[in-house]
């Protein structure tokens, strides 16, 4: 595996593999700094350049924030680019699966606050992440949470709010209802819905809030839990591409308190409710959520 890095790095092990390439753990021979080297696949199966590759490089190069994974350098070989990134030993997903050391309320508050700060930085710089989920939230040895994996990120301009984007974004459990209804004209508020789902998952001890096996089942679970969306609260819903194609039985919805297995503070419920709103315009922005009284 030495061929995957220039001579200044010593490859230690492979720590991940996905559709976009492989991830290697390495060490800088001069400084002994641990890094992650992400070997990206530059070409798609048709011979063209992977858009996810370009988006990840562009997003990471633009970001300089404590709560965003740091890009140290980029190097190239005949097969394409490799990103040298901060090495992060944990993900929020691995923390949630560590049943010997479950997250305490302090951890949940700390991680949620850092996630919102990182997301606020992205949104202020007109970047939608579009794939927020526990496995893409990385945690270093000092407990600092950082947003990673920008393969689905996209620049967003509010003055072009009618510009279409692909609906094939976000992992299903964290996909906002406007996307589940087929919308291609969405906003950074899709990230806010995902944050609400991640926050609720932490409060539920690692059990996802909505865990559908298909997009239709996912939407059915959301409606069963939150109640049937009304045109009064979300008038734009009737314009979504799949709204009139799919019908579900009327649901009154469940109280938030019934969705959490352990006693939950009022402030926690209020923040979940403020993030997980049907109408994207009624969700808190990342900046507003940072100032929520739950954190103060």
SS element count, helices: 8
What is the number of beta strands? 10
Q: How does the helix and strand content classify structurally?
A: alpha+beta
Order of helices and strands: EEEHEEEHHEEEEHHHHH
Low-confidence stretches: none
Shape: globular
Mean pLDDT: 88
Strand content: 15-25%
Q: Helicity range of the residues?
A: 25-40%
Report how far the terminal alpha carbons are from each other: 48 Å
Overview of the structural elements:
This protein has helices at 51-62, 92-96, 105-124, 177-180, 189-203, 215-226, 266-275, 286-290; strands at 9-18, 21-28, 34-40, 71-77, 80-86, 90-91, 127-128, 137-139, 145-147, 154-155. It is of the alpha+beta class and 296 residues long. The strands form 3 sheets. A 5-stranded antiparallel β-sheet has the order 1-2-3-5-4, covered by helices on one side. The model has no long low-confidence stretch (mean pLDDT 88).
Supply the key terms.
28% helix; 296 residues
Summarize the structure in short.
By secondary structure, this protein is an alpha+beta fold. The chain contains eight helices and ten strands.
Q: What is the element layout, followed by pairings?
A:
Blueprint: E1 9-18, E2 21-28, E3 34-40, H1 51-62, E4 71-77, E5 80-86, E6 90-91, H2 92-96, H3 105-124, E7 127-128, E8 137-139, E9 145-147, E10 154-155, H4 177-180, H5 189-203, H6 215-226, H7 266-275, H8 286-290
Antiparallel strand pairs: 1-2, 2-3, 3-5, 4-5, 6-8, 7-10, 8-9
Helix pairs in contact: 3-5, 5-7
């Amino acid at each position: 595996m030495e061929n995957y890095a220039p001579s200044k790095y010593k490859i230690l092990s492979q720590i991940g593999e996905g559709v976009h390439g492989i991830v290697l753990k390495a060490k800088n021979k001069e400084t002994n700094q641990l890094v992650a080297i992400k070997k990206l696949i530059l070409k798609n199966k048709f011979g063209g350049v992977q858009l996810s590759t370009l988006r990840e490089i562009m997003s990471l190069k633009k970001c300089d924030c404590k709560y965003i994974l740091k890009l140290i350098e980029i190097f190239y070989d005949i097969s394409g680019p490799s990103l040298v990134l901060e090495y992060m030993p944990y993900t929020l997903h691995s923390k949630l699966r560590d049943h010997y050391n479950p997250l305490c309320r302090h951890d949940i508050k700390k991680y949620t606050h850092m996630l919102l700060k990182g997301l606020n930085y992205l949104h202020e710089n007109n970047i939608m992440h579009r794939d927020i989920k526990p496995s893409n939230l990385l945690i270093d040895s000092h407990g600092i949470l950082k947003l990673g994996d920008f393969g689905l990120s996209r620049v967003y301009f509010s003055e072009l709010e009618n510009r279409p984007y692909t609906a094939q974004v976000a992992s299903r459990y964290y996909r906002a209802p406007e996307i589940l209804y087929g919308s291609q004209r969405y906003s950074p508020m899709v990230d806010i819905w995902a944050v609400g789902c991640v926050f609720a998952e932490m409060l539920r001890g690692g059990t996802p809030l909505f865990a559908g096996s298909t997009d239709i089942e996912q939407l059915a679970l959301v409606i069963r839990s939150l109640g049937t969306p009304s045109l009064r609260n979300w008038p734009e819903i009737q314009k979504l591409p799949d709204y009139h194609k799919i019908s579900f039985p009327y649901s009154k919805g469940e109280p938030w308190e019934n969705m959490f297995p352990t006693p939950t503070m009022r402030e926690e419920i209020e923040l979940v409710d403020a993030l997980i709103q049907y109408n994207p315009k009624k969700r808190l922005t990342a900046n507003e959520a940072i100032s929520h009284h739950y954190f103060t």
